[in-house]
Amino acid sequence: MKKYLFLLLAMLPMLFVSCSSDDDETASLKGTTWVCPDEGEGVRTLVFNKTEFLYTLQSKEETESVKGTYTYNPPLITLTSKDPKTNKEETMTGSIKNDKLSIGEIVYTKQK
């Protein structure tokens, strides 16, 4: 009887081991592009690399671009960049739900 009890206790930890490979992957937006057309301002675009992003605002008169870094901890995203006019660091936070990225009142749609 002791052998069976010992065998049962030895096998018990196997019931609680997770084998999912998804646990090791970090969330990334790498390679994604998000667009927000704005009739008054122009077209806003966010392009994500591994840890960096490029924000572009293209209007009829000019194109403005800002580079920065981001962290993504689903569903929250934090964007950090330097304001080109003041050279001060700025941080914006938003969230992603399905194919929509919201930062304040601005909503971007993921491009396919």
Keywords:
single chain; 112 residues; mainly beta; Lipocalin; eight-stranded antiparallel barrel; 8 strands; globular
Q: How many separate domains?
A: 1
What portion of residues is helical? Answer: under 10%
Distance between the amino and carboxyl termini? 62 Å
Question: How many distinct beta strands?
Answer: 8
Q: Which structural class do the helices and strands define?
A: mainly beta
Can you tell me the CATH class? Mainly Beta
Tally of individual helices? 1
Biggest sheet character: 8 strands, antiparallel, barrel
Kindly state the mean pLDDT as a whole number? 83
CATH-defined superfamily: Pab87 octamerisation domain
Mass-distribution shape:
globular
* CA gyration radius, whole angstroms: 23 Å
CATH topology (level 3) name? Lipocalin
